[in-house]
Write a structure and sequence with these properties.
Elements lengths: L1 H13 L6 H4 L7 E5 L24 H9 L3 H12 L9 H34 L2 E5 L5 E5 L8 E5 L7 E7 L5 E5 L1 H4 L4 E5 L12 H6 L2 E5 L11 E5 L2 E5 L4 E2 L4 E3 L3 E8 L5 H4 L10 H35 L20 H15 L7 H19 L13 E2 L13 E4 L6 E12 L2 E3 L5 H9 L18 H14 L31 H13 L4 E3 L9 E3 L3 H12 L2 E6 L3 E6 L8 E11 L7 E7 L5 E7 L1 H4 L11 H13 L2 E10 L2 H15 L4 H14 L4 E12 L3 H10 L3 E5 L4 H10 L8 E5 L4 H13 L3 H24 L17 H10 L4 H13 L4 H10 L44 H8 L10 E6 H9 L1 H12 L3 E5 L3 H15 L5 E5 L5 H6 L2 E5 L6 H5 L2 E3 L4 H41 L10 H11 L1 H10 L5 H6 L5 H4 L6 H25 L15 H19 L9 H23 L2 H4 L5 H6 L3 H28 L3 H10 L5 H5 L4
Parallel strand pairs: 15-27, 15-31, 27-30, 28-29, 29-30, 31-32, 32-33
Antiparallel strand pairs: 1-8, 2-3, 2-4, 4-13, 5-11, 5-13, 6-7, 6-12, 8-9, 9-10, 14-33, 16-17, 16-26, 18-19, 20-21, 21-22, 22-23, 23-24, 24-25, 25-26
Helix pairs in contact: 3-5, 4-5, 5-34, 9-10, 9-33, 11-33, 11-35, 12-13, 12-21, 14-15, 17-21, 18-19, 20-33, 22-23, 23-29, 24-25, 28-29, 28-30, 33-35, 33-38, 35-40, 38-39, 38-43, 39-40, 39-43
Length: 1294
């Protein structure tokens, strides 16, 4: 295939004419020439438009699907054992070994076939969609998508999807404009504007002559995966014109709000940009699966050891006893047991042992795991508590193989906007000409009131210094909200606008002394954007704006509220209806839109060049203060100082800020720039993007600041509670955001990520100490390398000081070390439940609870008597309903100051650290939060030594905020931490936008939010939910259950197959290592697949130890999964030892009873070997099934039915199988009916075996439950005794 593709590329390159070689300029060796309205039908030129997402073809399905199955090493082992069963010396018949293997493989093939058929069905529906294609004679005929060729001229109607990547020729809309929705490509729901070149507008599809005569030649770049770039030149009527992204319509996007368009097919099939982006998600395996691989290898080596022992022993005994073992027919004719050929005897014994003990590695385990994981996923999807009624979306599970990972998460990486916040932006405050406007309290300010921290209640008054205490603040906040007009009582409020200031509202801004500056400010907001209006000009209230982001739409809505109503847009004009007062009639103004310099995450700004009605030529710009302030005109900068101060205040109260600026343009300079900009846009290849960016940078200099905006992005419902519980569950939470440091810190307070009394360690290159480096570099004219080294040294110094501070005499707040957690889970849990009672009482509680469960009432009374327990993850407190969560905030500690939200944070210094260390150590370990900005993070990511230092600081902090980070840095940080923490720590990333995809895919588990920014994050994620608050239920309830269920399933599976393996070893010992089994081989074949499989599957699907309410009330229970306490060497070896003991009971008790010491049959005959085997196998079925009761913690009729139906299946099988002809049933012929059932000894044997096998384990578990209970057992006991807090806790389930 690769050779064919290379040939195609050479052929396509050959299609270029001799004069076209210079066009490539070395930028794109795969550039192609498209003859418009002349379809290409060459056999080896461009591929067709048929697409396929299938993994297999009809001829490759079986080998390719089997290859997928055999990626598991265990399948090779099963196949090898099945091959050995074909040997004449094999202990089991081949069919009894091959049938289970074939069954498992067929199930896998059927699953692959089902999935592939579903993909094929989707492909078939897509390829057979109808599209109107020009037939070359002025008429359009209906064809299928799959027959389209490059060069075809097609017509697409409103609401339809584009069949391939098209060059827009004309549109039924004005001026060649059409609107496109690209949600399937980038997840964005806003409409994009596309416009055809003016030279092709008149080709509208109505005049046959124009259709027939339309001919053009397009030279463009080759196929690539970049959705946002396209470069080419269209040669028509001997004129060459540049084309770019505004002229390209991408496959999988749809036409909206436009009657129809005509387009030329440029890329087809798998050459389209959507198919070029269709990459497979990263292959993620759960930690349990990796541990399972190690267990499989352990069992394999154990099996090899047992087979070698069999080989050696049978060789020695054959050599010693020789011909005395007459029943083995040790003659020359029997080559397998010839005493004269010991080597052959040993080899046969070895392979015989492999087959006989082969059940130590269970093939049914893999099938059971897949069934259980799919069922768990269905339960997650059906969970009504994770249904988002607002968006009408349920949870989605795309990677069921990672279910148990949800119960072991150690670190969460979260985006802020749209993930923690609702992504519903409201214009809240602004600063114009150095004056701040806007009243009301933000969520961050209300959080400050709750926490008793000094924080002003508005931008105009109620500043921190005027507040005497938290009570005064709270009372004034309530008075303000109840009696004054503002965000909570605002008659002007609408979606996107929650601003109130009596100086500006109702047209009063005209009376302000700086009314001209205010007018210009809102003019800029109404013009500087790429929004598309949807609605009628006569109904402003119903007008909606399709914008690239919700905050941009909020700014346009704000301009409308202040009398600058944007109601119409064309490719070259912006229509604004100005209302300058209640007594002045509105007038329509038309502004000429000349150029748009679009926003990007790298540029962090966008600009438009507009000619005003009065003839002024202005560049209007808005963007982040960090980039706008760098580009201001030093001679005419505007109110930079005041604006910077106000934006900092806006950020402190959690608002998203932008700077608004402008530049007066000279006509001649602009025309010169525009020519160069047009030439840059005509370049084909990657150079085009670089060149246009350089010219945009050139234009966006010498700006004058007009003002700034503050937009509030409210927290999602339940975010503070969810963050609090996740933190108390021992999960380290990181927030990676593009916001400035002040905004991120205060949003952190609002959502409980940061808490009162927590020490903030800030590493930033924007503090005065860091800026002094830049100032010195400017004075001394440092080289870039020296500046780099100086700033890197500064970052390194701050990280070292932070590390000294967090380790200087304080415990690790998470109870962890850089290698592994050392603290006992039970100790930390009891400490979390009882720490606020006092050190003496807590110690007594720990001693009492570990001594005996007889005083459980006292233990639980102590645990529940004080609902404000503290934990190392100190929650925020104060929110309604959170009293039930058992937390309290004590803001005082020895040697630390309480920092308010608006206080300036002192940078980390050695003096600070030294002064702290001189105080007496606090009773509680200090909590720390690291805040680091993107510039500092860039140095960390570039230096390995800084990465190690950074990780060590982060591990010892309760929270981490990374501010001003790019999407690339998000992914890099996630990868760094995931690799740095190793396999023992598990990272989860959650986000809602396309900029979070890299972070989501880099984490062990990715969770997408089905939010406003589209579905791209959800499509790339392993799990998807509608709101962030559902994450706590996904982890604390479903994740914990899934981990526990999968761990028990695997351990129980190995336990029951080990019993069978040990019994096979015992029987082989008594059979002189001849390999002859004591029971029918079909017994063994159905043991794992029928007789014992149902109870363990029920465990994996519906078993639960604590209720969801208890999981929320005691989130510390989650830590068992973080430490891997349920699936580790200790638990595995316990079940292994238990299997050894129970296998001995199951084997030797019947051996004693049936050893010939007494008659077994009514006629006085002793038991035969097959009688002993069948009686023993009954115990082999009953004991493991009843052992399941020790794993259940609550019972339903399903549990009982599964256990007793499994036992009953054994009796039904032995009766039915024994009734078939003896040639088939062999030694099982009428075994139960004629031999076992009439024997009283058989019926007395079974309860004896069951009691002897299960009693020791039951006694041990009971003793541990009473004298050394685990934490979940304490909670279970609490529920059994009817705790009065249980009803309250049940209300916490979201």
């Amino acid at each position: 295939m690769a050779t064919i593709m290379k040939f195609w590329k050479r052929k396509k390159a050959g299609n270029l004419g001799p004069g076209d070689s210079s066009v490539l300029n070395g930028h794109d060796e795969d550039a192609r020439t498209v003859l418009c309205n002349v379809p290409d039908h060459g056999a080896f030129s461009f591929p067709g438009n048929r697409t396929s997402t299938r993994k297999y073809s009809w001829w490759s399905f079986v080998p390719a699907a089997l290859f997928v199955q055999y990626r598991r090493a265990a399948y090779w082992y099963f196949t090898a054992m099945a091959g050995l069963s074909l040997a004449p010396f094999a202990p089991y018949s081949p069919i009894s070994v091959w049938l289970p293997l074939i069954f498992v493989l067929v199930l896998g093939l059927l699953r692959e076939a089902w999935e592939d058929l579903r993909r094929a069905k989707g492909d078939r529906e897509l390829n057979n969609r109808d599209i109107e294609v020009h037939d070359g004679n002025g008429e359009f005929v209906v064809k299928k998508w799959k027959v389209l060729r490059v060069g075809d001229l097609v017509r697409v109607k409103d609401g339809d999807y584009f069949p391939s990547d098209l060059l827009l020729v004309s549109s039924s809309g004005p001026d060649g404009i059409c609107y496109v929705e690209t949600m399937n490509l980038d997840g964005e729901t806003n409409l994009k504007v596309r416009q055809a070149l003016q030279v092709t507008w008149e080709i509208d599809g109505k005049e046959e002559v124009k259709l027939r005569e339309f001919k053009a030649e397009l030279l463009c770049e080759g196929p690539n995966a970049s959705l946002y770039t396209f470069s080419g030149r269209l040669k028509i009527n001997e004129v060459e014109l540049p084309v770019g992204p505004p002229q390209l319509l991408l496959r999988d996007s749809s036409l909206q709000n436009t009657g129809s368009i005509l387009g030329v097919v440029v890329y087809t099939g798998h050459d389209t940009k959507s198919m070029q982006n269709a990459t497979a998600p990263p292959n993620k395996r759960s930690r349990v699966d990796r541990s399972l691989d190690r267990v499989i290898w352990l069992m394999f080596f154990l099996l090899i050891g047992m087979a070698i022992a069999t080989c050696v022993i049978i060789g020695i005994r054959t050599n010693v006893d020789g011909l005395n073992v007459w029943y083995l027919r040790p003659t020359e004719s029997n080559a397998y047991y010839n005493p004269n050929n010991i080597a052959i005897v040993c080899i046969v014994g070895f392979f015989n042992g492999l087959v006989l003990y082969g059940y130590l590695i269970p093939i049914a385990l893999y099938v059971s795991l897949e069934i259980v994981r799919v069922a768990q996923a269905l339960f997650m999807v059906a969970d009504e508590q994770m249904y988002d009624s607002v968006s009408d979306k349920r949870a989605r599970v795309k990677s069921p193989g990672l279910n148990e990972e949800l119960g072991q998460v150690d670190t969460i990486f979260s985006d802020k906007t749209g993930t923690l916040t609702s992504n519903q932006m409201d214009f809240f405050r602004c600063t114009i000409a150095g004056i701040s406007y806007g009243e009301g309290t933000t969520e961050v300010e209300r959080a400050a009131v709750r926490l008793g921290m000094p924080m002003g209640l508005s931008s105009r008054d109620l500043r921190p210094e005027r507040q005497s205490d938290s009570r005064t603040m709270s009372a004034r906040a309530e008075t303000l909200d109840a009696n004054a007009l503002g965000p909570n009582n605002n008659p002007y409020k609408e979606k996107g606008f929650n601003f109130y200031d009596e100086r500006l509202m109702g047209g009063k801004w005209i009376e302000e002394r700086n009314s001209e500056a205010i007018k210009f400010f809102f003019e800029v907001l109404a013009l500087c954007h790429t929004a598309i209006p949807e609605g009628t000009a006569e109904d402003p209230f119903m007008m909606r704006y399709r914008a690239e982001s919700p905050d941009e739409a909020a700014l346009v809505v704000a301009a409308k509220q202040f009398g600058f109503y944007f109601y119409k847009k064309t490719p070259t004009t912006l229509h604004i209806r100005e209302s300058l007062g209640p007594d002045v009639p509105p007038r329509d103004q038309v502004y000429q839109l000349l150029d748009v310099l679009e926003f990007s995450s790298l540029r962090k700004r966008m600009s438009v060049i507009v000619r005003f009605p009065d003839g002024r030529l202005l560049l209007l710009s808005k963007g982040a203060d960090s980039v706008i302030f760098q580009r201001v005109d030093r001679n005419s900068s505007g109110p930079v100082t005041e604006t910077s101060k106000h934006l900092r205040q806006f950020g402190e109260v959690g608002l998203r800020t932008l700077v608004v600026a402008y530049k007066q343009l000279d006509e001649n300079e602009y025309q010169s720039w525009r020519v160069r900009y047009a030439e840059a846009r005509a370049i084909i290849g990657k150079e085009r993007e670089l060149r246009t960016e350089e010219l945009a940078e050139e234009m966006e200099q010498d700006l004058t600041v007009v003002g700034g905006t503050g937009v509030e992005d409210k927290l999602q419902q339940g975010v503070p509670e969810a963050v609090d519980r996740l933190a108390r569950a021992g999960i380290n939470i990181w927030v990676l955001t593009g916001d400035k440091v002040e905004t991120a810190i205060n949003i952190g307070y609002a959502c409980s990520l940061l808490r009162k009394g927590m020490d903030k360690l800030i590493v930033s290159l924007e503090v005065p100490e860091a800026r002094s480096i830049e100032e010195r570099a400017a004075r001394e004219e440092w080289l870039p390398d020296k500046i780099f080294e100086g700033q890197k040294k500064f970052v390194s110094q701050k990280l070292k000081e932070a590390l000294d501070l967090v380790l200087g005499g304080h415990e690790n707040p998470r109870g962890t070390s850089t290698s592994e957690r050392k603290i006992s889970f039970s100790e930390s849990f009891r400490s979390a439940l009882s720490r606020s009672i006092g050190r003496n009482n807590a110690s007594a509680l720990s001693r009492n609870s570990s001594r005996s469960m007889s005083n459980i009432d006292e233990v639980l009374a102590l645990n529940l008597s004080n609902p404000r327990d503290r934990h190392s993850r100190i929650p925020s407190g104060g929110q309604k309903g959170l009293e039930l969560l058992s937390f309290h905030v004590d803001g005082t500690r020895s040697g630390s100051d309480v920092e308010g939200l608006s206080q300036k944070v002192t940078p980390i210094t050695k003096d600070n650290q030294l002064s702290r260390s001189q105080h007496e150590p606090s009773a509680e370990p200090s909590e720390y939060a690291l805040i680091i900005d993107g510039q500092s993070l860039a140095y960390v990511l570039a230096e390995e030594s800084l990465q190690e230092l950074f990780l060590e600081v982060c591990i010892n902090c309760s929270s981490v905020l990374c501010c001003r980070v790019s999407p690339r840095q998000k992914a890099q940080v996630t990868t760094l931490v995931r690799k740095g923490l190793g396999q023992h720590r598990l990272c989860l990333a959650i986000g809602d936008g396309a900029n979070d995809v890299g972070m989501i895919q880099a984490a062990n588990v990715g969770v997408g939010i089905l939010g406003v920014e589209g579905a791209q994050a959800a499509m790339a994620a392993d799990f998807a939910i509608g709101q962030f608050r559902f994450l706590e239920r996904l982890l604390l309830v479903h994740g914990r259950w899934c981990y526990r269920r999968i761990a028990l399933l695997i351990l129980y599976f190995f336990y029951k197959v080990c019993i069978m393996g040990w019994i096979s070893l015992y029987s082989n010992i008594f059979a002189y290592f001849s390999g002859n089994p004591l029971y029918n081989d079909w017994y063994a074949s159905f043991y794992n697949t029928v007789f014992t499989v149902l109870p363990v599957v029920i465990i994996g699907i519906i078993d639960q130890d604590v209720t969801p309410a208890d999981a929320f009330r005691y989130p510390q229970l989650y830590r068992s999964g973080q430490r891997g306490e349920l699936f580790n060497r200790r638990s595995f070896f316990y079940w292994l030892v238990l299997s050894v003991y129970q296998s001995a009971v199951i084997f030797f008790f019947p051996l004693v009873v049936f050893s010939g010491l007494s008659a077994f049959r009514p006629n006085g005959q002793v038991a035969a070997a097959q009688d002993f085997g069948a009686a023993m196998f009954t115990g082999l079925v009953i004991v493991p099934n009843l052992q399941v009761y020790s794993a259940f913690h609550y019972f339903t009729w399903i549990h009982h039915a599964a256990i007793w139906a499994s036992i009953l299946s054994w009796y039904l099988f032995i009766i039915i199988y024994g009734a078939i002809p003896v040639s088939w049933a062999t030694i099982a012929y009428k075994e139960f009916v004629e031999v076992l059932a009439p024997s009283g000894g058989y019926w007395l044997l079974q309860p004896l075996v069951v009691v002897a096998a299960l009693l020791p384990d039951l006694m041990l578990r009971s003793a541990k439950w009473v004298y050394a209970p685990l934490d979940y057992q304490i909670v279970i006991e609490q529920d059994k005794r009817g705790s009065p807090h249980r009803a309250q806790a049940s209300n916490l389930v979201p």
